[in-house]
Design brief:
The protein is mainly α. Helices cover about 80% and strands about 0% of the residues. The two termini are about 20 Å apart. Residues about 330-340 have low confidence and may be disordered.
Amino acid sequence: MELSNKLALIGAVRSLGGSLLWSFTGFALFQYYRLPLTLVSLFYVAQAVVSSIAFMVGGYLADFLGRVRTMVISAVASSIALLIAYVINRPFIVIIMVLTQSFFNNAYGVANTSIVGDYARGFTSLVKYFSRLRVGINAGWAIGPAIGGLLYEVYGFRVLMLLGSLIPLAALPLLATLPEPNYTVEAGLTFHVSRSFALFLIPTFLTFLVMGQLGFPLLTYYNAHDGLTTFQVGLLYMENGLLVVFLQDLIGKYLRKPNLISLGMVIYGMSYLAVAFIPNFTWAVVDMFFITLAEMIVSPLSQSIANTLADPRSRGRYMGLYSLVTGWVGLWPHQSRAYS
């Protein structure tokens, strides 16, 4: 099996397990475990802090321990954490173990992004790999929340922790077959960040702030301002995921130049401006198409540019820094996923 297809299949299995859990975690802490909203908010603050640390730790592990080893260890550790949460099933333990799972999942994501940079040869190849990876991850996110919502209603949150632990393990045999890429490591705890990469992070931060609107902010606006039901907003997110699954590979073939990311940002700007004038669900569906089109242009190009600018001797740490800038801004999970 081609390496890009392997990574996509692994990403699909892992995102399926992750989407079952993370789509309902905050809701479960409030409803299932009866925690006050203040504590639920603090949970998400803690999750942002843990993720930030995990991005940098994952970068160092990817460089010094190896990409595949980091991915395997992180995958096993995250599953064990959720299994412990399932067995003990006490609010405090659940929070600690879910945060632990988040830590290792984000460390996995940095190594995953780094290994794509090692495997791919040239900018076009990078775009192809990241496009294919996004197809797999979005396939998992397209069906996971729907299944998870049904299971949550019937069996409660606990079963989601069990499935979130076990399903990603199905990808472990395939993950273990990935060849460890050959690369030279720049020694030392500190590493030099090139000026071009540092400058790239500035517009990247602003870009992902825009991309991060495809989540709670958009859901809240459509629900409170336009009167769309939660079910209708859920259909919009399903539209987003399915469009990526069916069109990302096709669009990726035409993303041969880095400066096309500017086109994606223009489409983003116009699409989110149009949200203010959306009168009903039908027009929201149309606008979601263009938001998703922008996403399919910007996301693989941004990751590809970051890998192109990274020093191969410290690629893991570069990708950790890139993930730190892009991964904490509240993105809808399938987008940060390329980190799944």
